[in-house]
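Dear support,

I submitted the protein below through the web form. The confirmation email said the job was done, but the results page showed an empty box. After a refresh the structure appeared. I'm attaching both so you can tell me whether what I see now is the final result or a partial one.
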Amino acid sequence: MGDADRRNPLTRIIKATTKVEANELHATLLSFLFVFVLMTAYFIMRPVRDAMASDWSDAEVSLLWTMTFFLSLIAVSIYGAAISLVRFRLLVPGVYVFFALSFFVFYFGSTFIADPVFVDKGFYVWLSVFSLFHLSVFWSFMSDLFNKEQAPRLFGIIATGASVGAIVGPLLTAELVASIGTGALMLVSATMLLIPIPIILVLERLKRTTLGNADVSVDLTAQQAIGKNPLAGFSLFLKSPYLIGIGCFILLYVAIGSFVYFELKNLLEVFTREERTQIYAYIDFAVNSLAILTAMFVTSRITTRFGMATTLALIPALLAVGMLVIALSPVIAVVAGLQVARRAGNYAITRPGREMLFTVVDRETRFKAKPVIDIVLYRGGDMITAWAFTLLTSVIGLGLGAVAAVGVGIAAVWAVVGVYLGKAYQRVADEQ
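What the results page shows now:
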């Protein structure tokens, strides 16, 4: 730190409270703004997307989830190939410009086409594909910007921007949708996705100047491997009972998520699209706020005091009780409350615990088998369970209460798998 920095009280306060050095402050604040804008833009559009689903039958939504699965595999492969062909500092802004332009197209299509149902369905699928990339590309860029000494100090501060954006985005949607409509929200979000472009250019300059990290480069080996073949880790996955257990845990998680999503979709069909958008926006706001508070004050205490088995089984057990309540009283408030509890519990408790399961496997397994679980099983599970819900409701003719009763059994099995995985993790960790 130079003499001027030592004399500057603001610089001393910032360093003492945040561990950010004076030469890192500009880049850290811009990175915070970068991810804040990304998450705000995404969570403006997410309620708009979810509100569309109530206009369609269960079979139509299941077909859209099927399209999402296959398009996600294609998109991941294209991105992996692009990493090998395009310089990373050009690829990052290119990704955001590409998605921003695509959302402009959806806005104009939904606004000026007389019957935009196919445009709306395309947007519904495309936003799910976008969700695979917006944060992944950002954190890859951060790894290319800061060195290994800076990252542990700065990434937690930068990640706070994502949390704030995840709260601000739904609030903006809830407040604006009644006055400007869902189409204009799409336009606002698409415009916001262009804001990171000048930020990226400035950060690239700061990398070579004040940060002194001209020689730092991100390791994109994992993304390239996934891009070449998202299914490459299947043999490793099928040979390991431990990984199969994680896969079953994921499938049961998405099964419950699909059931709650479809039940809420069907209950909300009596509202207008703007009203549904507002409801979904408030759900997203509640989810993100509760997840942040839980992660800050609860998660570590549960994990350290009760162990991994309890951590992984807690949310499934709570959801089993919640599904039982829905079976007895399938009303909007109960289903919406369960959706908030499910998603917030996943973000704050289940997902961190699930990621910890991979800390006891080797690097090759993590790079090759984890994408099979996170992409193929997760998206494929969405597709399979969506059709299962459609079978129960449209073919067999079960009502929402009866479907919720089926969900109770799924959640109970999910909790049992969570206990098994938690004990297996602890056993492997003790051996290591």
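Response: this is the final, complete result; the empty box was a page-load delay. Residues 296 and 348 are 9 Å apart (CA to CA).
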